[in-house]
Design goal:
The structure holds two protein chains of two kinds.
Chain A (H helix, E strand, L loop, with lengths): L3 H13 L3 H10 L1 H22 L4 H23 L8 H17 L4 H23 L4 H20 L3 H4 L34 H22 L1 H11 L1 H6 L4 H27 L9 H14 L6 H14 L11 H15 L3 H13 L5
Helix pairs in contact in A: 1-10, 3-9, 4-9, 4-10, 4-12, 4-13, 4-14, 5-6, 5-7, 5-12, 6-7, 6-12, 9-10, 10-12, 13-14, 13-16, 14-16
Chain B lengths: L2 H33 L6 H16 L2 E2 L4 H4 L4 E2 L5 H24 L7 H23 L15 E4 L3 E4 H23 L1 H18 L5 H22 L9 H16 L4 H20 L6 H15 L13
Antiparallel strand pairs in B: 1-2, 3-4
Helix pairs in contact in B: 1-6, 1-8, 1-9, 1-10, 2-4, 2-5, 2-8, 2-9, 4-8, 6-7, 6-8, 9-10, 9-11, 10-11
Classes of the chains: A mainly alpha, B mainly alpha.
Protein name (chain B): Branched-chain amino acid ABC transporter permease
Keywords (chain B): Amino-acid transport, Cell membrane, Membrane, Transmembrane, Transmembrane helix, Transport
Family (chain B): Belongs to the binding-protein-dependent transport system permease family. LivHM subfamily.
């Protein structure tokens, strides 16, 4: 019922853009193309990253893990226009849940991810329900409050579960489907693929999440998110239940955070307490904004830039000690001058060279 | 120890714990209430105050960071604590004015989200610049000699003199700001601007300068909080972000723009924390204040003393 108006808008958009340009656009936006780009990107990334940019495969894996987190966060911040400062709760919560599950129930990677994500979604349901009563800064502060609550809970009262300050160290991951050891190396022709087993596993999950995000954002449901960001009261007047959509955007972003957090626990075999601290929420905010809010690939790009500065630039001779400072400077410049982030800037240049369409 | 003295000790300690929150929250609250500006860099001003206090009070031996690499191993003026207490608010007042003009002003018309992002970024820059220059070690800001040691109070017994000093300084400053806002012409303009800035401008009153002063006062309070709070804990580059979250909680629990609200909320949080620590629930003291905050915000979203009108 409430989806009808947006369907109409989408239909109007398509008919407006009919013709060659429209068809090109449609192909660009089609799911197959997005998945194709994602697959090629995931396969090429370690080659470029390791050989030209001084990276290494473990870091490339970490980039994808954080990229999934930022991608989900963008659905909330970029598409729905809600700034949460408490997503560390879902990311770290999922990481802890995944770790504890792997240690005490089953180490099967797929089950571990499912369990971690489930916990993140449940937490988001409750916390979104409570925090979304207020907009703007109240939402930011309420999410921050719940996030910090979880951090201090895990640091001592729940230390029997989380191992407190030392972080959760007993993550134990079984081989995938009982055959493939994620931390081992690939045999046979598969060894030709770039990266290592873990990277390819994380890469496959990344492609799936990109496809999922793309499908959500291009569905009538996702278009409502954008409508809310553009003008909340207008969306309300059209008859949409804005609050329900906001809650769903919150939960969806936590779903991605959950997948990412579980992967993080699998990747590092360890969950640090700092994964729940509010600076983790701050990091994903920076990644998303840096890369470009409101775009599909921007946040992944932002995660790559962030981690590149954190791990590679920090090891450089002169600028090394200043890496965090550099990151802060770049971030502020982006917020002030390029609200669409680095990816938005690149897109603008591409459109300019290709002749502006509109 | 009698029950009465126990209760009084908890209250007094709570007062002291809450005092720092109050100092930060009052500044944050008047800036948020009057200028409608969300300052995530308020913790960085606290950090600035603490380090300025440190370097004005003593000479510090530096071992890490860029400064020692550049040959500067001792840094600081060594003028004593009283000098710090006088100079720091002046410096942070000026910093606040500069921030209003160059950071806040261009962002008044942009969404809350952008304000949060840019001030958050600035806080990161300041904190990390500091860390790069002097390293991340914890320093200790010594208590002033004239206020160290215990003082004998009736009923309670011995109580650290400096902790009492923190309470007194906070009370005086808050009273000063309260009087300024409630009983002067300047305060009248600020309050009118809070209610309806357009109407005030139409009446021919410029709001630019009162806004500058409000931001400056908020920043100065955060700076003083850094100086008086410094001797109570270690001083390191993380203390700013650590204080920011409770300070924001204090503001929203008390009600945005309400000085009385900030005081009430700060004392409530401080007392709860001390109560939990002294009754054997130390592990829960941090969790406790967040639970209290969450409950209050859910039951009374506008804050304890906030009016429904302030809520957008």
């Amino acid at each position: 019922m409430s989806d009808e108006p947006s369907d109409a808008t989408a239909a109007a958009e398509i008919s407006e853009e009919a013709g060659l340009d429209g068809r090109l656009e449609a192909i660009q936006d089609s799911e197959l193309a997005v998945v194709g780009i994602a697959v090629v990107g995931v396969l090429l990334f370690p080659l470029v990253f390791n050989n030209l940019l001084n990276g290494y495969t473990q870091l490339a894996t970490l980039v994808l893990v954080w990229g999934i987190f930022a991608l989900g966060f963008d659905i909330l911040l970029g598409y729905t226009g809600l700034l949460s400062f408490g997503h560390a709760l879902f990311w770290g919560g999922a990481a802890y849940a995944a770790g504890i599950f792997s240690a005490s129930v089953s180490g099967q990677p797929v089950l571990v991810i499912l369990f971690g994500t489930l916990i993140a979604v449940l937490l988001a349901w409750i916390i979104g329900f409570l925090s979304l009563r207020r907009g703007g800064i109240y939402f930011a502060i309420l999410t921050l409050t719940f996030g910090q609550m979880a951090f201090y809970l895990s640091s001592s009262p729940l230390a029997f579960l989380t191992n407190g300050e030392n972080g959760f160290t007993s993550v134990s991951i079984a081989p995938l489907f009982g055959v493939l050891d994620l931390h081992g190396s690939l045999g046979g022709p598969l060894a030709m693929l770039p990266g290592n087993t873990l990277y390819l596993f994380v890469g496959a999950v990344t492609v799936l999440t990109i496809a999922l995000a793309n499908r959500i954002l291009n569905s009538p449901y996702g278009i409502v998110f954008k409508a809310i960001r553009e003008n909340e009261s207008r969306a309300e007047f059209v008859g949409l239940d804005v609050w329900r959509y906001k809650l769903m955007a919150f939960i969806i972003s936590a779903l991605f955070a959950g997948i990412s957090g579980s992967l993080f626990a699998i990747e590092g075999n360890y969950v640090p307490l700092s994964s729940l601290y509010w600076t983790t929420s701050g990091e994903v905010v920076i990644m998303t904004v840096l890369g470009g809010v409101g775009s599909l690939f921007g946040p992944l790009f932002g995660a790559a830039v962030y981690l590149y500065i954190e791990f590679i630039v920090s090891g450089m001779d002169v600028v090394g000690p200043f890496w965090h400072l550099i990151l802060g400077l770049v971030f502020v410049v982006v917020v002030v001058l390029f609200p669409d982030g680095i990816w938005g800037g690149v897109t603008a240049i591409r459109d300019y060279i290709g002749g502006e369409r509109r | 120890m009698s029950l009465l003295s126990q209760i009084l000790t908890i209250l007094l300690n709570g007062l002291q714990q809450g005092a720092i929150y109050v100092l930060l929250a009052v500044g944050l609250s008047i800036i948020l209430g009057t200028l409608k500006f969300v300052n995530f860099a308020h913790g960085a001003l606290y950090l600035l105050g603490a380090y300025l206090g440190l370097f004005i009070t003593t000479e510090v031996q530096l071992t890490n960071g860029m400064l020692p690499e550049w040959g500067i191993t001792t840094f600081g003026l060594g003028l004593g604590f009283l000098a710090a207490l006088l100079i720091v608010p002046l410096v942070t007042f000026v910093v606040g004015i500069v921030m209003e003009r160059f950071v806040a002003k261009p962002f008044y018309d942009r969404p809350d989200t952008d304000q949060i992002l840019v001030t958050f970024g600035l806080a990161v820059i300041f904190q990390e610049a500091l860390r790069a220059l002097i390293g991340g070690d914890s320093q200790s800001l010594p208590q002033p000699a004239w206020a160290s040691g215990p003082i004998a109070l009736p009923i309670i017994g011995n109580f650290p003199r400096w902790r009492l000093g923190v309470i007194v300084i906070t009370a005086l400053l808050v009273l000063f700001v309260y009087a300024l806002v409630e009983y002067t012409d300047f305060g009248l303009i600020v309050r009118a601007g809070t209610m309806d800035s357009e109407m005030v401008r139409l009446l021919g009153i410029r709001l630019d300068r009162p806004y500058l002063v409000v931001f400056g006062i908020g920043a100065a309070l955060a700076g003083i909080a850094g100086v008086v709070g410094g001797p109570l804990a270690n001083v390191n580059p993380n203390i700013g972000t650590e204080q920011l979250v409770p300070a924001f909680l204090t503001v929203v629990i008390g009600g945005v723009g309400k000085i009385e609200g900030a005081v009430l909320a700060g004392l409530l949080l401080g007392t709860l924390q001390v109560l939990l620590i002294q009754t054997g629930f130390a592990a829960w003291n941090r969790v406790g204040i967040y639970v209290l905050a969450a409950v209050i915000l859910l039951v009374r979203p506008q804050g304890l003393l906030g009016s429904e009108v302030d809520v957008e």
